[in-house]
Amino acid sequence: TSGIVSVPSVYPIINGGAPVAAQPGDPSWCVAKGGLPETSLQAALDYACGIGGVDCSAIQQGAPCYDPDTLQSHASYAFNSYFQRSTGQLQSCDFGGTAVITHVNPSSGSCTFASGSASSTTGFPKSPNP
């Protein structure tokens, strides 16, 4: 083998979007973009809950973040969990172009999304724990 590792197209550190204008200390969340093909969102969600190492038990049936039972809602929870674990590095909120930073709290009902401050620091997010 050549020793070259293929990175899935949904790897979160590939950030081709425009920089986010935020004041230092502003709370930030990473959520799924609307209007995207379900196949793209599902692939990114599978990455976050699989290789990305996110604990997605909160979006399973009967758990606090299962409702609303939509792919966009579940992907938003998983993307944000990865983003917050990566200390809010902007590069960790992309997921192949399916995610975006917001400063509007996406929490609803009994589902609370973790929040943090977005960091414009360049570099790579912390590696996911196996």
TrEMBL record:
Origin organism lineage: Eukaryota, Viridiplantae, Streptophyta, Embryophyta, Tracheophyta
InterPro entries noted in UniProt: X8 (IPR012946), X8_dom_prot (IPR044788)
Residue stretches spanning the membrane: none
Membrane-topology descriptor: Lipid-anchor; GPI-anchor
Keywords: Cell membrane, Disulfide bond, Glycoprotein, GPI-anchor, Lipoprotein, Membrane, Signal
Organism expressing this protein natively: Genlisea aurea
Entry's localization field: Cell membrane
Protein name per UniProt: X8 domain-containing protein
Domain of life: Eukaryota
